[in-house]
Design goal:
Blueprint lengths: L1 H9 L17 E2 L5 E5 L7 H4 L7 H12 L20 E5 L12 H17 L5 E5 L1 H13 L16 E4 L3 E6 L4 H4 L6 H15 L5
Helix pairs in contact: 3-7, 4-5
Length: 210
Amino acid sequence: MQHREWTAQEKVRRYREWEYWGRPVPGFGDPAARLLVVGLAPAAHGGNRTGRIFTGDRSGDFLYRALYRAGFANQPTSIDRNDGLHLTDCYITAVVRCAPPDNKPTPIELKRCLSFLLEELTLLRQVRVIVALGQIAFRACLDALEARDVPLPTPRLHFRHGQVTALQNDLVLVASYHPSQQNTQTGRLTEVMFQQIFDVGRRYLDPHSG
């Protein structure tokens, strides 16, 4: 919380004129979504600035291009809360709601915020495919599903990009590298690799779509 508020006050030069959101960032999207995308946390000068998850940073640019191509978003960009972006059949959230230092939430932060993810899973009754962006989000999704008494495979699943796990209750969990600059600029995660994740999600939701 202190880092979130400090960042909103200090800002960075390129966003000096912005009035930062500087508060916990809620999930965003279609309340009837069948696709749930779970990220790590708001970026200090992205979601923490704009007030919308994956908005105003390069990770968001990467994500929304993929969602647009897969038919889950009406546009490939996400600049601010009033940019006209609309999600269809998709909801985006994060395991931590406040921007953490160095994008590394502590175990205490993860534990405190898990209740929000649990609540979203309860309210989003139509979710059938969950895409976990990164290892931390993947583990949090497993924790949340376990807390909701969804039977999980044993031994416990390990994160692997592209891994698709069919669970009971008609749920599918898909693991992906996070679209962080560290991953995208080094080529660890390419646009083709990332697009495949959402194309897989689309095929599970609409088997006859193509």
